[in-house]
Design a protein that fits this description.
It is built from 15 helices and eight strands. It has about 425 residues and is an alpha/beta fold. It has a single domain (about 5-420), classed as TIM Barrel. Helix 2 packs across helix 15 (about 365-385).
């Protein structure tokens, strides 16, 4: 038997050892005072993830799963069947319609003279209503990017990659207003907005320069007050990098601390701003969701530093990726435990985009990797969130002995600058 199959068999056996795996309702036998909200951006292979979450649901958890648009025309939602598959998993599974700006998305629609940004939002609501009656429960806007942060023009490098239209704050306000209000006689519909990771990676070259760009963005009280009530979740992409995490010989608490410094840097800077950032601080208190790469690349991935991938470097074997994802869940849950006054303790988000990059893995191995990663995420969520859960539950599920919080990558090193975001200076 090939070596990878032996490893995969052992990992499957370890996951199967967890108690209570089944298809019962996530709230069965449990009184839920307040549900946990898990927001998931998906790019492909939805079924693998959905099956895993449904087979091992976390108590008192609501899963909000976005569906990407049609590839040929990203202003069009996918066929209703995909959304129905999510809905059919149970009452705690909610499909979301992704509103894509790049490529053939809504930025091109506006640039082509089809309408204003507000009209783009309204038109998307019309398409949701016509094509997905009672299926697309809300929208996920992908995304506010660097041009929103600096409220300025595209760089030449962005233009060379096909990004020409800037997503200015005025434009994004109008788009969100259109998505929220919809057409006449439609009910207002709050949704999710992603703040993109581009130029905000864990290992970006000028971290302090990035902090300087963030400060006036966070001080724009008019922008953030406008978003209040229209945005239910503000998803901040903070995709960590395996090369800056699993430092050989480090302790779990050292890795947790460095992850928290990066993943929550926006939230910490908004809090540190005091009177300068009162509006955004209150807004984030209600809406902020840390968006991690718990379901990024499986097996082989891209390189965040040269932006082959926006999900951080995950060029590690599947067992290392599972440990890396687990420690991110553990760290987010730990941070939430220490900030009990915020709704943050009931919110988490992650991306799911398994890909088999060059050099490709054998098909059978890749398929097994995807299933393993999905099952590990479901198990980690189940035991880290919900009534009576602990951060440590993500690492070692009750009744098992396998510790998934032992992440290590040869040559990895910590980035030590991110704690600077805990201070406004």
């Amino acid at each position: 038997m090939p070596k990878y199959r032996v490893i995969l068999a052992l990992l499957i056996a370890a996951l199967a050892a967890g108690p209570g795996v089944g298809t019962a309702s996530a709230t069965s036998g449990t009184e839920c005072v307040r549900s946990v909200e898990v927001v998931i951006w998906t790019a492909n292979r939805h079924r693998d993830l959905m099956r895993a979450l449904a087979a091992n649901p976390a108590p008192c958890t609501e899963y909000w799963i976005s569906v990407p648009p049609e590839e040929s025309d990203k202003t069009m939602p996918r066929a209703a069947g995909v959304y129905r598959q999510i809905r059919n998993l149970g009452p705690n599974f909610h499909p979301m319609v992704e509103v894509t700006l790049a490529g053939t998305g809504w930025a091109s629609w506006v640039a082509a003279g089809n309408g204003t940004w507000f009209e783009a939002g309204v038109e998307m609501r019309r398409r949701m209503t016509f094509l997905l009656p009672d299926l697309g429960e809300t929208w996920l806007l992908n995304e506010f990017d660097r041009t929103t942060r600096i409220d300025g023009a595209r760089t030449q490098a962005e233009i060379d990659r096909g990004l020409t239209v800037p997503y200015t704050r005025a434009a994004m306000k109008e788009l969100v207003r259109g998505l929220y209000e919809g057409a006449p006689r439609m009910e207002p519909l709050p949704g999710a907005v992603e703040i993109g990771v581009a130029f905000g990676h864990q290992n970006l070259p000028d971290i302090l320069g990035y902090k300087a760009e963030l400060k006036p963005y966070l001080q724009d009280a008019g922008f953030w007050s406008f978003m209040r009530g229209k945005v239910r979740w503000l998803l901040h992409e903070a995709y960590a990098d395996t090369r800056n995490h699993g430092v050989p010989g480090s302790t779990l608490e050292e890795r947790r601390s460095h992850l928290e410094d990066y993943v929550f840097h926006l939230r910490e800077l908004a809090r540190a701003g005091g009177r300068h950032t009162t509006t955004v601080d209150r807004f984030l208190n209600d809406t902020f969701v840390p968006f991690i790469n718990g379901g990024g690349y499986v097996g082989l991935g891209g390189d965040a530093f040269d932006f082959v991938s926006g999900h951080g470097n995950t060029e590690v074997p599947v067992d290392q990726m599972m440990k890396f994802a687990t420690e991110q869940i553990y760290s987010v849950r730990h941070y939430a435990k220490t900030h009990r006054g915020e709704p943050l303790a009931k919110k988490i988000g992650f991306s799911w985009q398994p890909q088999n990059r060059v050099p490709a893995l054998p098909s059978v191995e890749f398929e097994a990797n995807v299933e393993l990663q999905a099952a590990r995420l479901a198990e980690a969520f189940r035991w880290a969130y919900g009534p009576g859960s602990t951060p440590e539950g993500a690492c070692v599920a009750p009744g098992t002995v396998v510790d998934w919080c032992t992440s290590e990558r040869a040559g990895a090193f910590f980035i030590e600058i991110w704690p600077a975001f805990r201070s406004w200076k």
